[in-house]
Amino acid sequence: MPELPEVETTVRGLTPHLTGQRLVRVSTLRPDLRRPFPVDLAQRLTGSIVTGLSRRAKYGIIATDRGDHMIFHLGMSGSWRIGNGEPGKHDHLLIDTTAGQRLMLHDPRRFGSVDLVAGDPLTNFPAFVTLGPEPLSDAFDVSYLARVLAGRRAPIKAMLLDQTVVAGLGNIYVCEALNMARIAPTRAAGDVSRAKLAALVPAIKAVLEASIAAGGSTLRDYKQPDGELGYFAKDWRVYGREGEGCECGGRIARIVQSGRSTFSCPKCQR
Ligand SMILES: [Zn+2]
Q: What EC number(s) does the entry state (predicted)?
């Protein structure tokens, strides 16, 4: 499932293929993904020039010189393919550029979405309005985290997955960061010490940055046409490693919190 690092890698991978390009043709091959494509998507994007790409949480944003922003979410299985060939069964949106390239949004399970927003998407796209700060931004620091978690009785893991607290963090990255910072995922968020929060903030940034760096190297292997802007397997510290050893010598355990698997080390995470 594409997480923040995969979306960041995707945006960086698409940028040189789209920025400055006029979109000669934009077409959808079915009416919807998780929800319908905007009915005027092709009309508003065709002929426009891409002025830049960015990311907010797990959304990629393609800005055009008409002030429109195409906002994509990769859902469970989405990815972009770059090439110049015919679309396959699971390619649902095609973008042809003046450079003669074709970008195809590939999404077998179709949990992704595409929206079109005029003007500033940070204020005009409803899904963005309530989001917390980006975890890799300077706004996400110890003071901020201590302030929003103060007095909260919910488990620290649940609070970090709350998109209004911090944007775009997924299950894997929260498990990994809590292990790095030696915090029990079940601990009440308001009871995590300032010293532990001071370890947690850089742990979150480090685990995301390591994955972005790994994705970047994966991407370089896929330079050829028809290459997929792919995802990458990682050697996780705790995620998916129930019963294996933690670096402290403890044994990694799996519990279920809010219906999702949590992996942690009961020995060093307190
Ligand atoms: Zn441990």
A: 3.2.2.23, 4.2.99.18
pLDDT tens digits for range 82-110: 877 899 999 999 999 999 999 999 999 99
Ligand 1 centroid – CA 181 distance (Å): 10
- The tokens of 14 are what? 């698409």
Establish whether 86 is a catalytic residue: no
| CATH number, domain 142-264, options 3.40.50.970, 3.30.420.40, 3.90.105.20, 1.10.8.50 | 1.10.8.50
Residue 81 annotated as catalytic: no
Q: What is the pTM of this model?
A: 0.90
The CATH code belonging to domain 4-130 is 3.20.190.10
Q: Which residues contact 189 (CB under 8 A, 6 or more apart)?
A: 149, 152, 153, 154, 155, 156, 158, 159
Is there a catalytic annotation at residue 3?
Answer: yes
Where is the binding site for DNA, in residues? 90, 109, 152
